[in-house]
Specification:
The chain has six helices and nine strands; from the N terminus they run E-E-E-E-H-H-H-E-H-E-E-H-E-E-H. The protein has a five-stranded mixed β-sheet with strand order 1-2-3-5-4. Strands 7-6-8-9 form a four-stranded antiparallel β-sheet, sandwiched between helices. About 45% of the residues are buried. The chain starts with 13 loop residues before the first strand and ends in a 5-residue tail after the last helix. A hairpin with a 7-residue loop joins strand 1 and strand 2. The radius of gyration is 18 Å and the shape is globular. It has a single domain, classed as 2-Layer Sandwich (Ribosomal Protein S5, domain 2). By secondary structure, the protein is of the alpha+beta class. InterPro entries: ExoRNase_PH_dom1 (IPR001247), ExoRNase_PH_dom2 (IPR015847), ExoRNase_PH_dom2_sf (IPR036345), PNPase/RNase_PH_dom_sf (IPR027408), Ribosomal_Su5_D2-typ_SF (IPR020568), RNase_PH (IPR050080), RNase_PH_bac-type (IPR002381).
Length: about 240
C-alpha cells in the first residue's frame, strides 16, 4: 500500500487555478497533492543578444523554491550569491520542454519567460512546474493574440510532465515525498499531448531497474500525462479543476 493509499496508477489530486497574478500576461497556481507551484509567464521584446535580428522568438524559464516550501527553512539562493546545480538543471529542463511545443517563427521576435516558484514541496516539483508552466505560457500567447502581436499556431501541442518510480517493488505513478525519498527507481517524463516524449530522466537509487520495469513506468507516464493534458484542455476552456 502506498503511503497516500492511492492505487499504483493513480495521480494525486490535481488542482489548477488560472489568472492568479494581476500583472503577468499568463499565470496559474498548480497543485499535485501537497506540492504547489506558482507559474507566471511574462511577454518581453528584449531577446537574448544571440537571438536578435533572426525573426524568431525564444521561451525560457526560471525556477526556485521558497525558504519554507520544505520541512526546514532553506536559505534563499539569492543570499548565497548563486543558484544551486539542482535549480539550474530544473529551470533548463522547464525551458527545453516548453520550447518543444512552440513554433519560434510564429512567435516572432518576442520572448516568453516563465517563472516557477515552489510554494509547498511534497515531491514532483519539476513535473508540476512544467505542467503549470504550459498553462501560464498558453495564456500569455492568448494575451499576445488578442493584441495582434502574434497569429495562430504559436503553440503546436499540449505539454505535461509526471514522475514515476518503483516503490517497494511496485511501479507507481506520481510520487509524493514519502515515496520519492525511499523509491528504488525514480523517473520523470515530459510528453506532448500527441504522446511524444520530450524528455525522460530515470535513475536507479538502489537496485538497477529492468527493461520490463522501464516499460511499466512508461505506461504509467503515458496514462498520467494523458489525464493531465485532458485537465489542461478543460482548464484552458474555462472549466474549474
Amino acid at each position: 500500500m502506498r503511503p497516500s493509499k492511492r492505487v499504483p496508477d493513480q495521480l494525486r489530486t490535481v488542482k489548477i487555478e488560472r489568472n492568479v497574478s494581476n500583472h503577468a500576461e499568463g499565470s496559474c497556481m498548480i497543485s499535485f497533492g501537497n506540492t504547489r507551484v506558482l507559474c507566471t509567464a511574462s511577454v518581453e521584446t528584449n531577446l537574448p543578444p544571440w537571438r536578435r535580428g533572426q525573426g524568431v522568438g525564444w521561451v525560457t524559464a526560471e525556477y526556485g523554491m521558497l525558504p519554507r516550501s520544505t520541512g526546514q527553512r532553506m536559505r534563499r539562493e539569492a543570499t548565497a550569491g548563486k543558484q544551486s546545480g539542482r535549480t539550474q538543471e530544473i529551470q533548463r529542463l522547464i525551458g527545453r520542454s516548453l520550447r518543444a511545443v512552440v513554433d519560434m517563427q510564429a512567435l516572432g521576435e518576442n520572448q516568453i519567460t516563465v517563472d516557477c516558484d515552489v510554494i509547498e514541496a511534497d515531491g514532483g516539483t519539476r513535473t508540476a512546474a512544467i505542467t503549470g508552466a504550459f498553462i501560464a505560457m498558453s495564456d500569455a500567447v492568448a494575451w499576445m493574440k488578442e493584441r495582434e502581436i502574434v497569429g495562430d499556431n504559436v503553440i503546436r501541442d499540449h505539454l505535461a510532465a509526471v514522475s514515476c518510480g518503483v516503490y517497494q517493488g511496485t511501479p507507481v505513478l506520481d510520487l509524493d515525498y514519502d515515496e520519492d525519498s525511499s523509491a528504488e527507481t525514480d523517473a520523470n517524463f515530459v510528453m506532448t499531448g500527441a504522446g511524444k516524449f520530450v524528455e525522460i530522466q530515470g535513475t536507479a537509487e538502489e537496485e538497477p531497474f529492468s527493461a520490463d520495469e522501464l516499460q511499466s513506468l512508461i505506461g504509467l507516464a503515458q496514462k498520467g500525462i494523458s489525464e493531465l493534458v485532458e485537465m489542461q484542455k478543460r482548464v484552458l476552456n474555462g472549466e474549474t479543476i
